[in-house]
């Protein structure tokens, strides 16, 4: 699961992945749901671990299927989240965490399908550059 967080200026919160899959690419903060953990609890935990921010889960934005090792397919649920308290600090498996203007997204090395998913879920408009 992943957290889609935008600040009041409309910038999107992204982390640079420090481990495979997608090491070195920019992505949404997120990760695995631990046994006995709800998606909402996992979103809040991963957001805090990877960015230092606390947040409130608002709604499911969408779901994507991504191939994994040995023929496994991951079903990833991404949630709209309102950021609350905290100081933006990368942690856990994130090597960096930053807010990006939407027009900057097309110039970033993003994880596969991220931009298309955000546009198809109407989280952001289509890129203009």
Tell me what the structure shows.
The chain has two helices and six strands. The protein has helices at residues 39-51, 114-120, and strands at residues 2-5, 12-17, 26-27, 53-67, 73-86, 94-100. A hairpin with a 5-residue loop joins strand 4 (53-67) and strand 5. The termini are far apart. The mean pLDDT is 93.
Task: State the main characteristics.
alpha+beta, 3-stranded antiparallel sheet, 129 residues, Nucleoside Triphosphate Pyrophosphohydrolase
Question: CATH superfamily membership, which one?
Answer: Nucleoside Triphosphate Pyrophosphohydrolase
How large is the share of residues in beta strands? 35-45%
Radius of gyration: 14 Å
Task: Tell me the number of strands.
Answer: 6
Q: Segments where pLDDT lies below 50 for 5+ residues? A: none
Mean pLDDT: 93
* Continuous helix count: 2
How many distinct domains?
1
CATH architecture: Alpha-Beta Complex
The amount of helix comes to: 10-25%
By CATH reckoning, the class would read Alpha Beta
Order of helices and strands: EEEHEEEH
Q: State the end-to-end distance.
A: 28 Å
CATH level-3 fold name: Nucleoside Triphosphate Pyrophosphohydrolase
Shape, please? Answer: globular
Largest sheet at a glance? 3 strands, mixed
Structural category is: alpha+beta
Order of neighbouring strands in the sheet with most strands: 1-5-4
